[in-house]
Amino acid sequence: MTAQADDDLWSAVADPSRRRVLDLLINNGEVSASWLGRQVPFSRQAVSKHLVVLEETGLISRRKQGREVLYQVEADRLDQAARAMADLAAQWDRRLAAIKRLAEAAHAEDRKRKQHNDQSSDRNA
Amino acid sequence: MPGLVIDRDIVIEAPVAVVWRTITEPDRMIQWFADRVELLVEPGAHGYMEFGDQGGPVVVEAVDPPVRFSFRWNHPRGEEPVAGNSMLVEFTLTPLGEERTRLRVVESGHELRDWPDAEKERYADEHRDGWVEYLDRLAGVLAEGPSG
Lengths: 125, 148
Known about the structure:
The complex is a heterodimer.
Chain A: H1 7-14, H2 16-28, E1 31-32, H3 33-39, H4 44-56, E2 60-65, E3 68-73, H5 75-118
Antiparallel strand pairs in A: 1-3, 2-3
Helix pairs in contact in A: 2-4, 3-4
Chain B: E1 5-12, H1 16-24, H2 26-32, E2 36-38, E3 46-51, E4 54-64, E5 68-73, E6 87-95, E7 101-108, H3 117-127, H4 131-144
Antiparallel strand pairs in B: 1-7, 2-3, 3-4, 4-5, 5-6, 6-7
Helix pairs in contact in B: 1-2
């Protein structure tokens, strides 16, 4: 049926706040939760929660450096998600294009038949 | 929480009634969609679609000729499809004059059922940007490599 979508992953990225966190990670490489907290208008606790959700989907990973925990994007996972999404969209584009071809052909048929019935002469070239 | 949302559309040079027939009549559906379609186009009707060696149940949701047709699929066999376990496919047809129709399809996963209203509104607002574009952009950024 449709490409198997990873529901947890879509849910994770669908939340605008989480998208914001993800964007910051993409644009800034490895950063700490406290640095992220200073860039966004929501609370530190909210940032921590978003990081947990993103980490569960495999979109980001963490690493300890001294006393700090640093987060970074897992490029392969994100790329894979983007591809799955694009595949699904492309599949619908192909179906819509096929519907267009079929409907336009059916419409041309209807017209031809109508013209044929209306006039005894052949249709104009 | 919301899940996956795909939103695509196309303009067809045919009257809305012709487009409606193309998307709802099983013998036409097999020409653009599944290899086998057993479906009664009535709200609540349970049907079946086959794609190659795969197949699954389909349940019709809305039938409002000639402007709206929706169904749920991808739910586990033997279960009733609900917001949490299936994908909803919604077709919307908009006549653009006598002989032209805009056909839009939205396929969505989990709905916004667990979200507070303010959050839903914010999501709907931001969502207009489009998801595919968002992920395309991410993929583009990643191809260049993250800085830092």
